């Protein structure tokens, strides 16, 4: 084979490879939002959007999965991610007081595995809770980090950090490759204030964390940002609030067409809000541009394919 033919075949191979990669990257172009309603007793709810602004409830806004873990049987703060293997993995708050988090997985968001409790804080006698767990995938190490907020009695006693009922949270984490074996629980974020509802996303060669400053006096109750070069930290001091004067919680972030959108629960007003940014520094309130199903509470946002959406649209 002469050099011209070799170059021709190399060109064809590279072109097809780029086309394939481009197709894979744009396949998941539907946005899905997982959420709960009321106290979380009926389980997982899902809504979809093609723009990231208008969200439509699926399955008549009925539950996709009823909670079965813990005596409380709640499914609050459901966080779902789609792994590199195409499997959807979900963690959630199972109770106001349990020392673990719920976990289940699915190939299609319809048929789910058996639910199990991951006892991430069972070793802490004085822990009060495990709230708002999330999952972030580490592409470099091919593993998952599960993280959540907990209050450990007496661990951080400063009164000006307390929220209602003397909760004083910090963010903790474990690492897993298969959701069967887990590393020792470690502290992920402590910058001297009461913090809950962390969600972490890759950002070029670093990571960005959105979290709620839960400080009650002087009142914060808003969403802030921190950064780290590594998924497991250390993370920087928190930024100024990006959500203004709202009492905001449950941030869910996604980048759409070059813009970051952070959705959040305006829990005092009983509705959802959102802010938008091109650079993660300057934020515009777009709450009047978005719509969610009535009663939507703290969840997560992720991408799925049109084929996966069509399956969900035909459910009754």
Percent of sequence in beta strands: 35-45%
Question: How many strands, which pairing sense, and closed or not: the largest β-sheet?
Answer: 4 strands, antiparallel
Low-confidence stretches: 6-26
Order of helices and strands: HEEEEEEEEEEEEEEEEEEEH
What separation lies between the terminal Cα atoms? 59 Å
Average pLDDT taken over every residue: 92
**DSSP summary, beta strand count:** 19
Order of adjacent strands in the largest pleated sheet: 3-2-1-19
Indicate the structural class: mainly beta
Fraction of residues in helix: 10-25%
Shape: globular
Number of helices: 2
**Computed Rg:** 20 Å
Mind sketching the topology for me?
Blueprint: H1 3-27, E1 30-36, E2 45-49, E3 56-57, E4 76-82, E5 88-93, E6 101-106, E7 116-118, E8 131-138, E9 143-150, E10 170-176, E11 186-189, E12 195-203, E13 206-213, E14 222-228, E15 249-256, E16 259-266, E17 271-277, E18 284-285, E19 297-304, H2 306-313
Antiparallel strand pairs: 1-2, 1-19, 2-3, 4-5, 5-6, 6-7, 8-9, 9-10, 10-11, 12-13, 13-14, 15-16, 16-17, 17-18
